[in-house]
Specification:
One of its GO terms (molecular function) is DNA binding. By secondary structure, this protein is mainly α. Helix content is about 45%, strand content about 0%. It binds a DNA duplex (21 and 21 nucleotides) through α3 and α6.
DNA sequence: AAGTCACTCAACCGCAGGACG
DNA sequence: GCGTCCTGCGGTTGAGTGACT
């Protein structure tokens, strides 16, 4: 038996809000304050809206402290940096941007920033250059031979065409690819971005002196990506020093600490997170899933997750202020 | 001028977690 | 411990609109 609906949906208005409805919300808040949204249909006469819908209207549009102008370059850069570190935790990102809502940030990311990164050859999920992802994928998939049909689907020359023609994320494709058959059938074409494109990209994502640069997380996004690497500057070949593929393909008997080196753990950061933030739930299950698919055993993946958890603890212990900035 | 397409963004949906009785 | 209510969150949808053919 499921949970009953929050209101009688057949009797409730949906869709865009009118000025009159907005006025009723404002009047209700002025009298009763924010909260108890479920009481609105009873207390605000003539407002035939679900309380949940009223709360959303207030939160995303009517709140007096909201900005309604377009995002500044500084705000956009902050969104990108935050997304690189914590992924699609829009409410957390929005708290760093006064006057912006999670919905604003999410929409702006999906409509502008994600596309911008893709155009620059940056995977918007991992924030790594697509070429680097492909290199790593070759390493873990055993498709290092360029004569493989899969790799022939990837152009390596710079092109004016879009970087990713059919996917928003190279990593998405890699995640979704579970057999050689699908590799071979993949119609996607990847191209290497030019150096200038990379330089433009890293204007946003990798200032060498940017205080955010050292910030790494066990889960760079909500996806299964879990590599802890820093993109290189200026279009040079990126150097992966800590990749989940290391765990998937390395000898599980050897101590992991001797096989990997984590970058950024000694750097400073002003992107900070609450200690209660659970970065590992999705990444853990996903990486284990990938591990099962790729290696047929879960040992390397669980070691990988353990290592990530350790590194998270290490990072947080080094930067106590990390525990305070994001409120949940 | 009309039709189509792509884009934006407000709003909806389902789920999860905390508070409370 | 359990059920209910409320709130918050992230993903998704679809109406509106402008650009393009």
């Amino acid at each position: 038996m499921g949970r009953p609906p929050c209101c009688d949906k057949s009797n409730v208005k949906k869709g865009l809000w009118t000025a009159e409805e907005d006025a009723k919300i404002l009047a209700y808040v002025a009298i009763h304050g924010v909260g108890n949204w479920s009481l609105i249909p009873k207390k605000a006469a003539g407002l035939n809206r679900c309380g949940k819908s009223c709360r959303l209207r207030w939160t995303n549009y009517l709140r007096p402290d909201l900005k309604h102008d377009s995002f500044s370059p500084q705000e956009e850069e902050l969104i990108i940096q935050c997304h690189r570190v914590i992924g699609s935790r829009w409410s957390s990102i929005a708290r760093k941007l006064p006057g912006r809502t999670d919905n604003d940030v999410k929409n702006h990311w999906n409509t502008k920033l994600k596309k911008r990164l893709v155009k620059m050859g940056i995977d918007p999920v991992t924030h790594k250059p697509v070429s680097q992802l492909l290199t790593e994928f070759r390493n873990i998939s055993g498709h290092g031979n360029s004569s493989e049909p899969f790799l022939r689907n990837f152009k390596t020359e710079p092109s004016n065409n879009s970087i990713l023609t059919q996917s928003n994320s190279a990593w998405e494709m890699i995640r979704n690819t579970t057999s050689h058959e699908s590799y071979h059938n993949s119609p996607m074409i990847f191209t290497n971005p030019t150096s200038s494109e990379f330089q433009t990209a890293f204007h946003f994502t990798n200032h060498s002196n940017h205080p955010l640069n050292g910030a790494t997380s066990s889960c760079s996004s909500s996806s299964s990506s879990a590599s802890i690497t820093q993109p290189n500057q200026g279009g040079q070949a990126p150097v992966t020093t800590f990749s989940w593929s290391d765990y998937l393909l390395s000898d599980p008997v050897l101590p992991l600490s001797s096989q990997t080196q984590v970058v950024g753990s000694s750097a400073t950061s002003n992107i900070t997170f609450n200690k209660n933030e659970n970065f590992n739930t999705q990444g853990e299950s996903s990486s284990q899933n990938i591990a099962s698919k790729v290696s047929g055993t879960c040992h390397p993946a669980s070691s990988f997750v353990d290592e990530i958890l350790d590194k998270d603890q290490e990072m947080l212990s080094q930067f106590p202020q990390l525990l305070n900035d994001f409120d949940y």
